[in-house]
Amino acid sequence: MAATHTAKAATSSRSKATTSAKGSKSKSAHPKEEEGKLKEFFHDEIKDIYWAEKKLVQTLPKLAKAATSEELRDAFTNHLEETKEHVSRLEQVFELLGEKAQAKKCDAMEGITEEGASVIEDTEDGTATRDVALVLAGQKAEHYEIATYGGLAQIAKTLGLDEIASLLETTLQEEKNADATLTSLAEGSINDDATEE
Ligand SMILES: [Fe+2]
Ligand SMILES: [Fe+2]
């Protein structure tokens, strides 16, 4: 194998290049400057879902506390643990991107969680109707996350960020499972129980 040049030619005089150097493009542009608009957009969206996940860590205990049935309470509690993992997985993503973890307010998740709080106010404690409302609120959050992680994993692949794509896909699968659990609870008993109230 040919030896690779690991050292740049010694620069005896490090004079400041003040000339405009028309027609000669610099080879040593900073990588940050070469990042495209798509990567910038991707970073912003990661900050957005990071905010959303942290918001869910605060919200899921409230949903669990408000639930009437034990199964629904358990479903929210289990997903709370997964959601904490989603937060730390995103912190790994920031690390892989070489950035500090940073949250940017997600208006969509703010609205979804506000709606969750209002269904608790609008339904009676200890009823199956309360659980129907909580399942619906929970599924709205899961569907937002499924759409987000599905899209972001695809963008990560497009950008050649395979390790990040696989982290996002792991979370995506857990969001799908959480959604399926809520569906089976609704179909299994909760909705029927509520028709008797
Ligand atoms: Fe999540
Ligand atoms: Fe989730």
Name the CATH class.
Mainly Alpha
Shape: elongated
Number of domains: 1
First-residue to last-residue Cα separation: 79 Å
Name of the CATH architecture: Up-down Bundle
Please outline the major beta sheet.
none
Question: Could you outline the blueprint of secondary structure elements for this entry?
Answer:
Blueprint: H1 31-34, H2 37-66, H3 70-96, H4 107-122, H5 128-158, H6 162-195
Bound molecules: fe (ii) ion (2 copies).
Would you give an account of this structure?
- The protein is an all-alpha fold and 197 residues long.
- The chain has one domain: Ferritin, CATH 1.20.1260.
- It has 6 helices and no strands.
- It has helices at 31-34, 37-66, 70-96, 107-122, 128-158, 162-195.
- Helix 2 runs parallel beside helix 4, helix 3 (70-96) packs antiparallel against helix 6 and helix 4 packs antiparallel against helix 5 (128-158).
- The chain starts with 30 loop residues before the first helix and ends with a helix.
- The model is unreliable at 1-29 (pLDDT under 50).
